[in-house]
Specification:
Layout (H helix, E strand, L loop, with lengths): L4 H4 L30 H12 L2 E3 L11 E3 L1 H20 L4 E3 L5 E2 L1 H7 L1 H4 L1 E6 L6 E3 L19 E4 L3 E3 L9 E4 L4 H6 L1 H7 L6 E10 L14 E11 L4 H18 L7 E5 L11 E9 L2 E12 L1 H10 L5 E3 L4 E3 L2 E8 H12 E6 L2 E6 L10 E5 L7 H11 L5 E3 L5 H11 L3 E5 L3 H4 L1 E6 L5 E5 L3 H9 L3
Parallel strand pairs: 3-10, 20-21, 20-22
Antiparallel strand pairs: 1-2, 4-9, 5-6, 5-7, 8-9, 10-11, 11-17, 12-13, 13-14, 14-17, 15-16, 18-19, 22-23, 23-24
The structure holds glycyl-adenosine-5'-phosphate.
């Protein structure tokens, strides 16, 4: 299906000028040469323009650092979480899932140590009055360059609210700043209702909230975000070996889903960097446009959490092993990733610009599991004659793939649009389809087109996903 030059260049039209104000201006030196200089701007614009991510409450001027996931973004975010769940829960028999409450009583956060220690050091610039996290700025205000900063004071990151109509201390509740604690407080419930025993894990995906001092870099650091965390309970003697196992597993997950190896690295924390609960942490880092930064932390939390909750609640959170007659408090290995932050990394890694037949195009080379749509069904013309076949093809594919159906504009423009939103395969129905009962399948990355009989289409697409 041919397209015109004008159609090929139409991908990036009508881009909005009002980008969020937390997109960084400076691009550091360690960004590889083959990344576009303005990669961040381009991805943020694409997200806004194509309906991945919108600034929240935009019609009221926006709400800083808060974002809404549009029709494409919600599909992709679900796919990121689903890919994580598949690898961490579905394909294993030693991990079960959980969906715990977001609102929690102070007792949980007192025991976990968050009420006492979940703070960041805050400084004010006396010159321009901006506020910063002291540990991120090397003593100089990034806004005006002044080193006239106030003394650092500890700022608490948890969102506090009241449960019920009375706003007094007896009704205080907190929004969880991590999903992890729900897994610890339900440890005995899960142990008592499943047949799991160490080593086993509890996984959870959901929203967390932190009153970040400097939310920044689009959805990289926001006050409301989604996490994908798993607590893996092991005997104390085996904790180091399981820590190493999970570091390896988690690195492989990002690579399998298309993050290029040269943009992914592992960084072990120095002892003075460790969180209050951790005996050892390794961060999975991605090379963002502003440099290397964290995607996920894998921590050896020891018995910190179960012991703390057992002491505070008075409930035993030990495990008794009937085989060895041993009673112990399990140690915990925790791979803790951010779903929204990881989605952004996948978008940045997938963004590329290339030339097809001498014409520039923008293409998101997303793994098919992550793309908002896996297939676009495109009747060549709007004429009603093709619609019944298009509907038949949609009916065949929709139970298996997320499908887009687009009848507007010329076929070239529609291919370009699908390239730009990362759809791996376009299925085109033309007038020959009415004769030969076949369609054209176009591959996003190679742009190669092949004719496929409709009754073999599902098998062909499954073959391309590697799951015949
Ligand atoms: N339970 C351990 C824990 O929460 P963390 O390193 O604070 O560890 C885990 O958070 C992951 O959650 C981070 O690696 C990051 O991907 C994501 N995350 C944390 N704070 C975030 C924020 N403000 N905005 C977006 N993602 C965030």
């Amino acid at each position: 299906m041919n397209e015109t030059a004008e159609e090929r260049s139409a991908g990036a039209d009508n881009l909005p000028d009002n980008l969020p104000d937390d997109v960084p201006d400076d691009v550091p030196d360690d960004v590889p040469d083959d990344l576009p200089d303005d990669l961040m701007d381009k991805v943020v614009r694409l997200c806004r323009h194509r309906g991945f991510i919108f600034p929240s409450a935009e019609i009221y001027g926006g709400f800083r650092s808060t974002y809404d996931y549009g029709p494409l973004g919600v599909n992709m975010l679900r796919n990121v979480k689903e890919a994580w769940w598949r690898s961490m829960v579905q394909l294993r028999d030693d991990v079960v899932g959980l969906d715990a409450a977001i609102l929690g009583p102070p007792a949980v956060w007192e025991a976990s140590g968050h009420l006492a220690t979940f703070t960041d050091p805050l400084v004010d610039c006396r010159n321009c009055h901006e506020r910063w996290r002291a540990d991120k700025i090397d003593g100089v205000c990034p806004n005006c360059g002044s080193s006239d900063l106030t003394e650092a004071r500890e700022f608490h990151l948890m969102f506090k609210t009241h449960a019920g109509p009375v706003e007094d201390e007896g009704h205080v509740a907190y929004l969880r700043p991590e999903t992890a604690q729900g897994m610890f407080t339900n440890f005995a419930n899960v142990l008592g209702t499943t047949r799991k025993k160490p080593p086993f894990g509890i996984a959870q995906v959901g929203k967390s909230f932190r009153n970040e001092i400097t939310p920044q870099n689009f959805v990289f650091r926001t006050r409301e975000f989604e996490q994908m965390e798993m607590e893996y309970f092991v005997s104390p003697a085996e904790s180091q070996q399981w820590f190493e196992y999970w570091v390896e597993q988690r690195m492989a997950w990002y690579l399998d889903l298309g993050i290029p190896p040269e943009r992914l690295r592992l960084r072990h924390h120095d002892p003075d960097e460790l969180s209050h609960y951790s005996r050892g942490t390794a961060d999975v880092e991605f090379l963002f446009p502003w440099g290397w930064d964290e995607l996920e932390g894998i921590a050896n939390r020891g018995d910190y959490d179960l012991t703390a909750h057992a002491t505070a609640s008075g409930e035993s959170l030990d495990y008794f092993d009937p085989q060895t007659n041993e009673r112990y408090t399990p140690h915990v290995i925790e791979p803790a990733a951010g779903a929204t932050r990881t989605m952004m990394a996948f978008l940045l890694a997938a963004y590329s610009e290339d030339e097809i037949g001498g014409e520039a195009r923008t293409v998101l080379r997303l793994h098919w599991r992550l793309a908002p749509y896996q297939v676009a069904v495109l009747p060549l013309s709007k004429k009603d004659t093709l619609e019944p076949t298009a509907r038949r093809v949609l009916g065949l594919l929709q139970p298996h793939f997320m499908c887009d159906h687009d009848v507007t504009q010329s076929i070239g423009r529609r291919y370009r649009r699908q390239d730009e939103i990362g759809t791996p395969w376009c299925v085109t129905i033309d007038f020959d389809s009415l004769e030969d009962d076949a369609v054209t399948v176009r591959d996003r990355d190679s742009t190669e087109q092949v004719r496929v009989p409709i009754d073999g289409l599902l098998a062909e697409l499954r073959r391309r996903t590697g799951s015949e």
